[in-house]
Automatic annotation (TrEMBL):
Transmembrane regions: none
Xref: PROSITE patterns: ALDOKETO_REDUCTASE_1 (PS00798), ALDOKETO_REDUCTASE_2 (PS00062), ALDOKETO_REDUCTASE_3 (PS00063)
Family annotation (CDD domains): AKR_AKR5G1-3
InterPro entries assigned: AKR, AKR5G, Aldo/ket_reductase_CS, NAD(P)_OxRdtase_dom_sf, NADP_OxRdtase_dom
Organism: Bacillus salipaludis
Name of the protein: Aldo/keto reductase
Domain NADP-dependent oxidoreductase residues, every copy: 31-266
Lineage, uppermost ranks: Bacteria, Bacillati, Bacillota, Bacilli, Bacillales
Length: 280
């Protein structure tokens, strides 16, 4: 059982990654963002996920610096992720994008760097760049985001190093069964973005009933479901009480019946773009 916010999964290269973290998608630069990162660090979060396209790496970096100083921990105790955007997916442009992200974040290295989307004909050059950075010791782990099975198969045909992570939209309405099975088979850790389906599941009667049974919120039940399915999760929030609430999921465990019941809610429904039809 995953029973602590500091519990980690071991990636296929031996690197430890927290099972639980915070995402900052669509959080604009400014005091709210900086404060959210600090709140998270203060409340035990050790994994922070951003991306070049979010336009907020500078604020995330400032929040990290201020947060670790307040709490008295080292940079090495955090797991920081960013992603290369579609417009930069060439070999040289990916290398340059990495340097830009590091500079904005004010960091010497990233724990995880991802290809954000599987843009047709572009991601293999970007992957070679990630392999180069990884072999040079500039990144602790490399991976992809929004890759479906056929994208992974195509990438791995020519890759020297298999991805360590595949971060995908994942929630009870989109449980990514085939992707998850493929990732398990090949030692790739699945990670959930939009685990709460942007709040669209909070009124669902099945989830409300399960939440009532444990005296938890629907959000807490969904996040616990992620972890018990072996999926790393990074819910987004800027409010301190939500950041705390989201992380209060380590004192209960869903039954097999609960998990099966939640699994039946799958409709293969996305709130984000379809990876097969998304370029920019």
């Amino acid at each position: 059982m995953i029973n602590n916010i500091h519990d980690t999964t071991i990636l296929n290269n031996g690197v430890k990654m927290p099972w639980f973290g915070i995402g900052v998608f669509k959080v604009e630069e400014g005091p709210e963002l900086i404060q959210a990162v600090k709140f998270a660090i203060n409340h035990g979060y050790r994994s922070i996920d951003t991306a070049a396209i979010y336009g907020n790496e500078e604020g995330v970096g400032q929040g990290i610096r201020e947060g670790i100083q307040e709490v008295g921990i080292s940079r090495e105790e955090l797991f920081v992720t960013s992603k290369v955007w579609n417009a930069d997916l060439g070999y040289e442009s990916t290398l340059a994008a990495y340097e830009t992200s590091l500079k904005k974040l004010g960091l010497d290295y990233l724990d995880l760097y991802l290809i954000h989307w599987p843009v047709a004909g572009e991601y293999k050059d970007a992957w070679r760049a990630l392999e180069t950075l990884y072999k040079e010791g500039r990144i602790k782990a490399i991976g992809v985001s929004n890759f479906q099975v056929h994208h992974l198969e195509d990438l791995m045909k020519d890759a020297e190093i298999n991805p360590m992570i595949n971060q995908v939209e994942y929630h009870p309405r989109l449980n990514q069964k085939e992707v998850q099975a493929f990732c398990r088979e090949h030692g790739i850790q699945l990670e959930a973005w939009s685990p709460l389906m942007q709040g669209q599941l909070l009124d669902h009667p099945v989830l409300q009933e399960i939440a009532k049974k444990y005296n938890k919120t629907v959000a807490q039940v969904i996040l616990r479901w992620d972890l018990q399915n072996g999926v790393v999760t990074i819910p987004k929030s800027t409010k301190e009480h939500r950041i705390v609430e989201n992380s209060t999921i380590f004192d209960f465990e869903l039954t097999t019946e609960d998990i099966q019941q939640i699994n039946t809610l799958n409709k293969n429904h996305r709130v984000g773009p379809d990876p097969d039809n998304f370029d920019f």
